[in-house]
Task: inverse folding
């Protein structure tokens, strides 16, 4: 499709907030949109309202719309960082938000999602027309999820979401507590979604080349599978999934600690 993209960094020491200077520096005359993923996969973070307004200010300044990936909407378990939809925070910047049942309702295989277009200033007139045409193509969800959708959206009790977020917070707390004291390992505590990004110091290890090498050896030696951060245009880190019991996370921590001991200088 001849589409080119630039990336901007997220700052680990600031709860994975956007490097705003880098984001703005990457905007060119032919830039078509800024893609924002919040809550974040792979970082497990959720932007504050103030930080989102800073992103919107950059988009407004340069007259660039935002595509907001909000598939993990509603899965913030940090009271200081509640989820806010980007589309509800501006009346000037055109915003296209995507969402899905997959994460908040724990049905990832059903592949039922949606796009909400905030057509500020009429910028997305042609886009809305093309979205309508695309919707005519028979790529709809399976009949099972279509039939269940009214009950899913209308009858799932609020307590389900409270319990889900409580379990994710407990898992996040357990992972951070267990991993933070392992030499060379630097977890960044999650505040949303089902993931935690872990940074590691390659200088601490005698025979680890990079994050891909780290994850390959961790899988081979300890039967623990993680995603290297190069999958997400970063380096010297790996992503873990925290949607499991704290005791399983603690076992992972034990295996990771032993792995690190085997490879320290």
Result:
């Amino acid at each position: 499709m001849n589409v080119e993209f630039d990336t901007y960094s997220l700052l680990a020491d600031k709860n994975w907030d956007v490097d705003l200077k880098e984001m703005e520096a990457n905007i060119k005359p032919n830039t078509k949109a800024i893609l924002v993923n919040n809550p974040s996969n792979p970082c497990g973070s959720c932007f504050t309202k103030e930080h989102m307004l800073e992103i919107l200010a950059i988009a407004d300044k340069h007259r660039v719309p935002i595509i907001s990936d909000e598939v993990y909407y509603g899965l913030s378990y940090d009271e200081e960082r509640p989820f806010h939809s980007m589309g509800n925070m501006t009346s000037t910047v055109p915003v296209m938000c995507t969402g899905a049942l997959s994460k908040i309702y724990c049905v990832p295989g059903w592949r039922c999602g949606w796009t909400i277009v905030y057509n500020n200033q009429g910028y997305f007139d042609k886009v809305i027309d093309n979205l309508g045409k695309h919707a005519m193509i028979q790529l709809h969800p399976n009949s099972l999820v279509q039939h269940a959708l009214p009950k899913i959206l209308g009858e799932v009790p609020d307590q389900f979401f409270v319990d889900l977020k409580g379990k994710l917070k407990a898992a996040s707390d357990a992972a951070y507590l267990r991993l933070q004291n392992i030499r060379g390992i630097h977890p960044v505590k999650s505040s949303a979604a089902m993931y935690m990004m872990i940074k590691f110091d390659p200088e601490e290890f005698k025979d680890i080349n990079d994050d891909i090498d780290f994850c390959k050896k961790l899988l081979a030696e300890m039967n623990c599978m993680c995603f290297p951060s190069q999958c997400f245009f970063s380096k010297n880190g790996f992503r873990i999934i925290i949607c499991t019991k704290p005791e399983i996370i603690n076992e992972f921590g034990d295996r990771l600690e032993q792995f690190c001991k085997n490879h320290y200088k």
Observations:
- The chain has two domains: 10-155, 158-263.
- The chain has a mean pLDDT of 94.
